[in-house]
What does this fold into?
Amino acid sequence: MKGKRFLSIWAALIMAALVLTGCDDGGGGGGGFATPSYKSIDEVEAYLRDASGETSVDTPVALRVELDLAIYWAALLEAIAGAGKYVALDLSRCTLAGNADGVMEFDPGEANTGENMIVSLVLPDMATSIKAGEWPGSGYGAFTDLERVSGSHIETVGAYAFYGCALTTVNLPKATTIGEQAFKDCTTLTSVYLPAAASIGGGAFEGCTSLTTVSLPEATSIDWFAFNNCTSLTSVSLPKAPDINLLVFAGCTALTSVYLPAAASIGGGAFTGCTSLATVSLPVATSIGDAAFKDCNTLTTVDLPKATHIYEKAFEGCTSLATVTLGSTAPTLGTNMFYSTTATVTVKIPNGATGYGDNWKRGFQGAGWNGTATTGGSINSGITLVIQYQ
It folds into this structure.
């Protein structure tokens, strides 16, 4: 009995170890049993032929291949199309040839049959770049049902690459550069994991209307329109970004939280139409662009302790603005700061602050101020200004 009990315990320990290790064959799937890797088109065709059902994007066939994509990419797509089954395609073990510059770039090529059957795509471990499209929709435009993309060594996502795709999830942990309009109009995109991204190109996520949060801890360059009209975006964290460019968050109507501790320059129209934004703190910002907060009609508090210049119409349409905190030296002001706006605004400044005289007050109400005199703008009688020392 003791021997049988010992054998039973030993068997249980072996089974537990198999469960804990996942019996995986090194492909990163984790958990569950080993995922086979198919090494020829014949094997792929046979596997897909025998796979049951899976004619819905909700239940794709898991397909891991180990092929030379320079030779077999088109044939692989033909096999997928011939099977008529949606697939979650894992290319992590595949090889590919470098481009003319020697960069290991994944290029989906011209539109091919079968691309529309790929629901999930794991890019080759060899790949460090995703090829740019030649025009909007030309990159992965034929991947009409692609929901998830990941790549463990991708460093660059080319311009227009996923423009207009049906993506929901992007996981590119080593990507440092996101090209112009790379994910523009991906209206179902909800999750973006780009912890190493340093450069975000113009319009990169413009029109991603399902994206709710953005956290880019390493981003130092945010170009124009980057998140324009992301209407579900509620929270933004860009701790290293020194500049927020033209219209970056314009039209983000759900935005309530902004973390920009390093932003020294806020571009023109950067937050135009952010109608849910109530509080903004920009601790090191020196320059606030024209119409930066235009039509932010729920904005009540703005903290700009380092501002040296606030451009024209910066607070146009900010009908709820009650408090603006400024620094010890009065910033120069563009004209028509509160164009077509009625509000009572308290400007809080430190004790001993200089420059906040009558001309500056008139400048704040719309006349503009160049450091010594008003600059010819019209004073808005609907703006009541209170200076409060603290």
